[in-house]
Amino acid sequence: MINLKDLILFQTLTDEECKQCQSALRVREKRFEKGDFLMHAGDRTEWMGIVLSGSVTIESNDAWGNCTILSHVSAGQCFAETYALLPQTVMLVDVRANENCTVLFLNAGSLLNDTPGSPWKEKLLKNLLLITAGKNLALSGRSFHTAPKSCRGRLLSYLNAVSLQKGTTTFDIPFDRQQLADYLNLERTNLSKELGKMQREGIISFKKNHFKIIRNDL
C-alpha cells in the first residue's frame, strides 16, 4: 500500500492520523486496464478515488452514443469526491481508465458521520475543500474553451490555457485526437483539418500530443 502522506489529500496528517483514517475510510487499492469503467452514470457512491498511476477521464456519455470528456485526471489527483460526499445524488458522469492505471479508493461518505475523537477529519476535509476548489477552476476553464463558436477559437483557447499553466510554449497535452475533439465538443475530422491549417499557417506545430505555439499575436 502506498504511503498516504505522499498524496496531497493526506499531506497535513501525522503518521498516526494516516493510520486511523486508512482504517476508518476503508482505503483500498485497485488496478484497471485501459478502457475499463471505474464508475458509471446512474450509480450512487460513497467512494472517491485517487489516481496513483496512469490516468482516467471523466466523461458524459448519452443514450445516443455521444461522448463529451469533461476532465482528465492524472496521477495524484482525485475524482468523484463530490458524489461521495453527497451519496444520495445520482452520478451524471462515467469514470473511465484513459490508460492502464492504479487507483486508491476511500469511503469519503464516512467523513460526514458524527463519530467523536477524530481530529484527522478536520484536516482531511480542509484538504478536500482546497482540492475541490481547484477542480472547480479547471471545470470553469473548460467552459471558456467551448464558448467560441469556431473550431479554431476553441483550439486556440485550450492550447493557450495549457501553455499558460505549464509556463512554456512547448508542451504535451493529455488527450489523443478523439479525446481532444470530445473535450472541446468538436467533430474529430473538423478538428484534425483545423489543426493542419493552423500548422500550415505557422500558428502552431505539433506531432501527436506534443505542441508548440509559434505565433501568439493573433
The end-to-end distance, rounded to whole angstroms, is 50 Å
Q: SS-based structural class? A: alpha+beta
Strands of the widest sheet, in order across it, are 1-8-3-6
Runs with pLDDT <50, length 5+? none
Mean pLDDT across residues: 91
The succession of helices and strands, N to C, reads: HEEEEEEHEEHHEHHEE
Helix content: 25-40%
Please name the defining characteristics of this protein.
218 residues; 6 helices; four-stranded antiparallel β-sheet; alpha+beta
Protein described:
This protein has 218 residues and is α+β, with helices and mostly antiparallel strands. Helices cover 36% and strands 25% of the residues. A hairpin with a 2-residue loop joins strand 10 (204-207) and strand 11. The chain starts with 14 loop residues before the first helix and ends in a 5-residue tail after the last strand.
Task: Describe the structure concisely for a colleague.
This protein has 218 residues and is α+β, with helices and mostly antiparallel strands. Helix content is 36%, strand content 25%.
Topology of helices and strands:
Elements: H1 15-24, E1 28-32, E2 37-39, E3 47-53, E4 55-61, E5 67-74, E6 78-79, H2 81-85, E7 94-97, E8 101-107, H3 119-146, H4 151-166, E9 170-172, H5 177-183, H6 188-200, E10 204-207, E11 210-213
Antiparallel strand pairs: 1-8, 2-7, 3-6, 3-8, 4-5, 4-7, 9-11, 10-11
Helix pairs in contact: 3-4
